[in-house]
Write a structure and sequence with these properties.
Elements (H helix, E strand, L loop, with lengths): L8 H9 L2 E6 L5 H16 L3 E6 L17 E2 L9 E5 L17 E5 L10 E4 L6 H11 L6 H14 L10 H12 L4 H9 L4 H12 L2 E3 L4 E6 L1 H6 L22 E9 L2 E8 L6 H6 L3 E2 L3 E7 L2 H17 L1
Parallel strand pairs: 1-2, 1-4, 2-3, 4-5, 5-6, 8-9
Antiparallel strand pairs: 7-8, 9-10, 10-12, 11-12
Helix pairs in contact: 2-3, 2-4, 3-4, 4-5
Length: 322
């Protein structure tokens, strides 16, 4: 599959010619998923087209206050055919968690290595620090002027998928686009405070309880965290309340990689991975069938907690020693 820094002509043509669109992203949507999807939907609406953002579940509370998020259509089954479905940052169509999307032509827009190229049109740009950067480029290509709402979503996407401008895949373009978003009406202070500083009491309790589970390996260079469904229920929170928690151990000087396992079901875990510097945890996620970047990645693993750790920890220890 060819990797492109600019959107294919076929993609632009389909958006210009079409009238009805759905825009979606991956399950458990984060700031980049919400930001890039709503920015694209608003841009298509500005062109006089009908565009609806659809996802399998509501976003976390920290994203609910962003412009137009209340208009999100929540469903796990789409029955209408449209001119195209835009899928933002999904390595495979199944990751959307919404059935029926393949009834329409699919436009696959992603910046992660390992994308399966499942779209009728595929635009994979691994140089983009966030899918929001691709949305920004596409909005420019369509000749749409940024509104404050679009700019807010684009800034949110870049801010969150770069770990608040921490991760190694940042480029000068990331900062240039963020600056353009601010100039167009995005309020960095409001965005950061709304997303990062709107915690519930349950979220604070979950942070404390999960951090108390932390163990370290490789002379303190690897941290392991976990949460079970029972823990979340007992503390009065949900897994949405763990958003951003994985980054906290990385503030410890010696910790270079963090693994966070969330129990999704019996013998079923969602694994999130973060690292700093040259420690490549994206390769670890891909070895388990997942994906991501050098410093931020994720996948699913099956087995008991101890069985999952037995497969994971040797790879993490090797990564920090490489």
């Amino acid at each position: 599959m060819t990797l492109l820094s600019n959107p294919p002509h076929d993609l632009i043509g389909r958006l210009q010619q079409g009238r009805r669109f759905l825009v979606t992203s991956h399950q458990r949507p984060d700031g980049d998923a919400i930001g890039s999807a709503f920015a694209m939907a608003l841009a298509l609406q500005a062109l006089g087209k009908h565009a609806t953002v659809v996802m399998d579940a509501a976003p976390p509370a920290s994203l609910a206050a962003f412009p137009h998020v209340g208009e999100l259509m929540v469903t796990d089954d789409v029955r209408e055919c449209v001119d195209a479905v835009l899928v933002m940052e999904c390595s495979s169509l199944a990751r959307c968690g919404v059935r029926g999307l393949d009834q329409s032509p699919v436009i696959n827009i992603d910046h992660h290595p390992g994308n399966t190229g499942y779209g009728t049109v595929n635009w994979i740009d691994e140089q983009a620090a966030a899918c929001g950067e691709q949305a920004f480029t596409l909005i420019d290509a369509l000749g749409v002027s940024l509104t404050p709402a679009m700019a807010t979503h684009l800034y949110l996407a870049i801010l969150t998928d770069t770990g608040s401008f921490h991760f190694s895949h940042l480029t000068p373009r990331s900062y240039q686009l963020a600056a353009r978003a601010v100039a167009a009406g995005a309020d960095p202070q409001w965005i950061a405070r709304t997303h990062y500083d709107s915690n519930s009491l349950g979220r604070v309790r979950i942070f404390g309880a999960v951090l108390n589970t932390m163990t370290t390996l490789a002379d303190g260079r690897v941290a392991i965290l976990h949460i079970t469904r029972e823990m979340a229920a007992r503390l009065g929170g949900t897994y949405d309340d763990t958003e951003g928690l994985i980054n906290f151990p990385l503030t410890v000087k010696d910790i270079q990689a963090v693994a966070f396992l969330k129990e999704a079901g019996a013998r079923d875990w969602r694994l999130s991975l973060r690292s700093k510097g040259a420690v490549d945890i994206g390769a670890i996620a891909r070895s388990f069938g997942g994906g991501g970047h050098t410093n931020a990645a994720g996948c699913s693993v099956t087995g008991t907690y101890d069985e999952c750790l037995g497969r994971l920890t040797p790879r993490l220890c090797a990564a920090v020693q490489a």
